[in-house]
């Protein structure tokens, strides 16, 4: 089954119920959401999120899968500031608990940044952090996202993800989230060699390791290491290649979500609208 949706918000009086309604307005049958603002640690209590009403609406409309994205503030790879490392572990533990309470079994996590240190030092910290978090949580898969490789961020190659996963004591709850823009910007040829990318993932990480996918075009050429998303068909990857990814039989039944930019009104820079309804329709058609 094709599960295709987008990132949605969660705010106002309706909270998580509003997230589900937003996804439905785009013609989506899945979605991705943050449990609070991605840039900070402030979180509303679970009993204020209208979770049960959201679950009822999802059941009514046939949405049986969605994913959570961890906040950007988490950096388990920080080798410089012990307080940031500690905060990352605490936040990820809390976010996993919130993910399970909201009804998802997958949380997407940016692996982290070494903050100027050697990559292997950052990877060692990520492994240390994941070991502790996994030992103190249950139920939810942590999907490490493939990254573009800007700055000192980690997870920019399948080999780096392998080093992390192989180093974690209990890695049965570790999966990955592939991002088409990030793969392109990291140097993986999504346009001409997507099957080879899947083969490498299966060989190095094991079959069944992919939990979900972010479907984004890229503003940048192959290997740019910049991570700038483009709207579907408006970037260097293109509509045909992204359709190939979305409908790939080896990725059937995994959640695929768009994170493409809002469309700006040329006459009013403050006015922009979500492109997801149109882009989902374009990607669904074969």
Quick summary:
This protein has 286 residues and is of the alpha/beta class. It is built from nine helices and 14 strands.
Task: Characterise this structure.
The chain is of the alpha/beta class and 286 residues long. It is built from 9 helices and 14 strands. It has helices at residues 15-25, 51-61, 82-102, 119-135, 158-167, 180-186, 190-205, 239-246, 276-284, and strands at residues 3-7, 31-33, 67-69, 106-109, 112-113, 141-145, 153-154, 174-179, 210-215, 217-218, 229-230, 255-258, 263-265, 268-273. The strands form 4 sheets. Strands 1-2-3-4-6-8-9-12 form an 8-stranded parallel barrel, surrounded by 5 helices. Strands 5-7 form a two-stranded antiparallel sheet. Helix 2 (51-61) links the parallel strand 2 and strand 3 (67-69). Helix 3 packs across helix 4. The chain is globular, with a radius of gyration of 18 Å. The model has no long low-confidence stretch (mean pLDDT 96).
Keywords:
alpha/beta; about 290 residues; eight-stranded parallel barrel
Shape: globular
Radius of gyration: 18 Å
Treating each run of at least 4 consecutive H or I residues as one helix, how many helices? Answer: 9
What is the number of strand segments? 14
Order of helices and strands: EHEHEHEEHEEHEHHEEEHEEEH
Unreliable residue stretches? none
Strand content: 15-25%
């Amino acid at each position: 089954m094709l599960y295709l949706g987008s990132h949605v918000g969660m705010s106002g009086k309706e909270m998580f119920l509003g997230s589900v309604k937003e996804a439905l307005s785009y013609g989506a049958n899945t979605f991705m959401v943050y449990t609070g603002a991605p840039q900070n640690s402030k979180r509303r209590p679970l009993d204020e999120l209208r979770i049960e009403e959201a679950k009822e609406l999802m059941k009514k409309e046939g949405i049986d899968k969605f994913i959570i994205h961890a906040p950007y503030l988490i950096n388990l790879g920080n080798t410089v500031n012990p307080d940031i490392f500690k905060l990352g572990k605490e936040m990820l533990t809390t976010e996993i608990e919130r993910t399970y309470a909201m009804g998802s079994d997958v949380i997407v996590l940016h692996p982290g940044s070494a903050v100027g240190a050697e990559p292997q030092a950052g990877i060692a910290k990520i492994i240390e952090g994941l070991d502790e978090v996994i030992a103190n949580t249950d139920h939810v898969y942590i999907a490490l996202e493939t990254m573009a490789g800007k700055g000192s961020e980690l997870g920019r190659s399948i080999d780096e993800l392998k080093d992390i996963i192989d180093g974690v004591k209990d890695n049965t709850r570790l999966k990955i989230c592939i991002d088409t823009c990030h793969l392109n910007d990291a140097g993986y040829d999504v346009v001409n060699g997507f099957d080879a990318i899947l083969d490498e993932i299966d060989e190095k990480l094991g079959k069944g390791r992919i939990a979900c996918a972010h479907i984004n075009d890229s503003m940048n050429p192959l290997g740019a290491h910049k991570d700038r998303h483009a709207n579907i068909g408006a970037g260097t990857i293109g509509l045909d290649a992204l359709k190939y990814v979305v409908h790939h039989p080896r990725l059937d039944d995994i959640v695929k979500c768009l994170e493409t930019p809002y469309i700006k009104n040329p006459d009013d820079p403050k006015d922009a609208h979500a492109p997801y309804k149109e882009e989902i329709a374009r990607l669904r058609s074969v």
